[in-house]
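seq as requested:
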Amino acid sequence: MRPIIPHILLLVVSFMLCAMASCRSHSNATADCYRDRYLGMEISEADNHKLYHEIKGWIGTPYRYGGNTHDGVDCSGFIVNVYHKVYGVKLQRSSELIYKNNCSKIEKSQLCEGDLVFFKTGKGKRISHVGIYLKNGKFAHASTSRGVIISSLGDDYYRRNFLQAGRVKK
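struct tokens:
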């Protein structure tokens, strides 16, 4: 008796490819072809799949101050790892130093996929948190309470504490 698993796997892959192809063939379909359940957002052919794939691998990683591995990571450790893996760029290790030494200031309205968003989450105007912008107002970051997650710049907390957007100098 032949194993049935390879046949089922082939059937599932074929179905997925057909579904994606039919999405692209509809004249009124948007560029967004599938919703990634782990990222909670639509992913299209135009997106940087390497970026989304890398971030997906970090989702759920617990927060650990000073951490920079999948066992535990803080906000800047997460950004440093993602940027090095996806873009081959080495960034400073703190959110404030990333902004001061690795970024050019941009307006919030100019945010593009891969840009960084900076927040003041403590007292004063000092940068104390960083995330990586995805699209449609969403960004990935290491939250102290929930680990690596996707959040919205429109959420009250992030809207109140947003300080600056930056584009990494490559």
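The radius of gyration is 18 Å.
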